[in-house]
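User: Please predict the structure of the protein below. I'd like the answer in structure-token form so I can feed it into my own downstream comparison script.

Assistant: Understood. Taking the following sequence of 582 residues as input:
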Amino acid sequence: MAGDWLDLARYADTSGYQTDGPRDMWRWRDWVIEAFNANMPYDTFTVEQIAGDMLPNATLSQRIATGFNRNHRGNAEGGALPEEFAVEYVVDRVETTFTVWLGLTIRCARCHEHKFDPISQTEFYQTFSYFNNVPEYGRAIKEGNSPPFIKAPTRDQQHTLKRLREELAKLRARREANRANLAKQQQEWEEKFDPKRKADWTVRDGLAFHWGGAPSRKKQKHPLRWHGSTPKSIDGPVGRATALADGVHAETPDAGDFGYFDKFTISLWVRPDASLSGTFVSRMEPTPRGPGYSVDIRDGHVQLNLVKRWLDDSLRVETKRRLEPGRWQHVSVTYDGSRVAKGICIYVDGVSEELKSNLDAINQSFASEEPLRIGAGGAPYTGGLDEVGIYNRVLAPDEVRVIGTATTISDIVRTPAARRTATERHKLGVAFEAAVSDKASRKLRADVIAAERELAEFHEALPSVMVMQEMPTPRPTHFLIRGQYDKPGKRVQPGLPAALGKLPSEAPNNRLGLARWLVRRDNPLTARVAVNRLWQQHFGVGLVETPEDFGAQGTPPSHPELLDWLAVEFMESGWNLKALHK
């Protein structure tokens, strides 16, 4: 039975179309197998697959079940129009749902009135509306699952996840209980601190590239080659910095090499001039844009661009707030390797900024053979730069606050506690615990960090599955003239074809209401289609020889009374499939 159901649901391990890239829907497949093995009542089986995500306090299992209507093909071709294929995906859901549960050829009403069954084109789009509220982008992800998707751990993985979370919670509780001890140690250390001593601390874990800001040509791990006149050395937030102008920039060939699955953080101090434009850091061909990445300022907005092919295969995210000209500000950009805009964060002076996504579709690696450039790679940057750092991981917000605090540890300690800023207190506390506190405290900190990473790595490796999800505000649905995506007509509201009746007045007029209506006793068509399919599995031919078409063009039932009797027995048994088999 499970194999037949997978065929009905168009299950596949690839997305179809030209690229036919891999995707992961096997957790939904396993849900189907487990549901049949457990003899899940067919009405529950129906509701959970159509609208499990909309059930009150939906469980992981119920959300996985909705993968039924994400099994459609997904087009990841470069020239695919997202608006066109977003419509195709919804049409597929309507057709599959109504064919599998009701045996109706409703798709025939997409472009015109149904030629044989009492389904109008308007009614098709009313039904379309039930499935048109998924927050998806018409162009699919080329390799992997397309949003929306969820992590879907197996039972064993759920047990491991629970254990890792509990272990981390215990370690964090122990660390929190040690705060008073740490505070006492820190106070004693500050009292003994030599005021003439110079000391500082920053986050170095994962630091793959660092340039201190001074225009030095001395030998370093990643030597910079300067282009243009010798840049001017200026006072920076951390020692000496560099002022760039007239296209002067630096290059190094072997740093910051990332692709779209790689996590990274780019941080730097900037003091832009009044133009508020240019490229801070890039690894990208200047013209045309891509492939590669760049951190830019455009009209004062900080941007991260990840580009394979400009515009149609790119991510661009920018801050809504503008930087200030003529003032040193710290900028950090993180990317989590998720290939979507929501995987990007931008911080200014340690504070996460509200972002605007301009482009959100990248399907290929943006890895580039271009060198890492500082102050170039797009429009030349004019202004000050200092302390450029590139990490091969995503820094946590607390770590970003540390690297965004220019005051040295020495200066913080010399400042009376009451006059220290919140970020200075935070930096000093983090530095003391990491580098100065007693051995037990340092070990406890290290244990927490190790447990956090173990949990994060385990969670990242968990399987995912594409699921249904409702948008907070329903997407407007329009009658499409001749079925064309770019010819919208009048707006329509969700509803059933009149020939099938109406949802009960107390039912929500949404996908959940539709799912529950499918298995109501006053809608015997669902039961007829199900028992006919089961008869076909046993005897090779159904009582209705056209299981996909119970309409006017379908074959009439050979034994209509038997079909009705089986349908009633099925419903009265509590939709018990195994009992029906026997």
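That's the full token string. The chain has three domains: 2-152+469-503, 154-200+408-462, 202-407.
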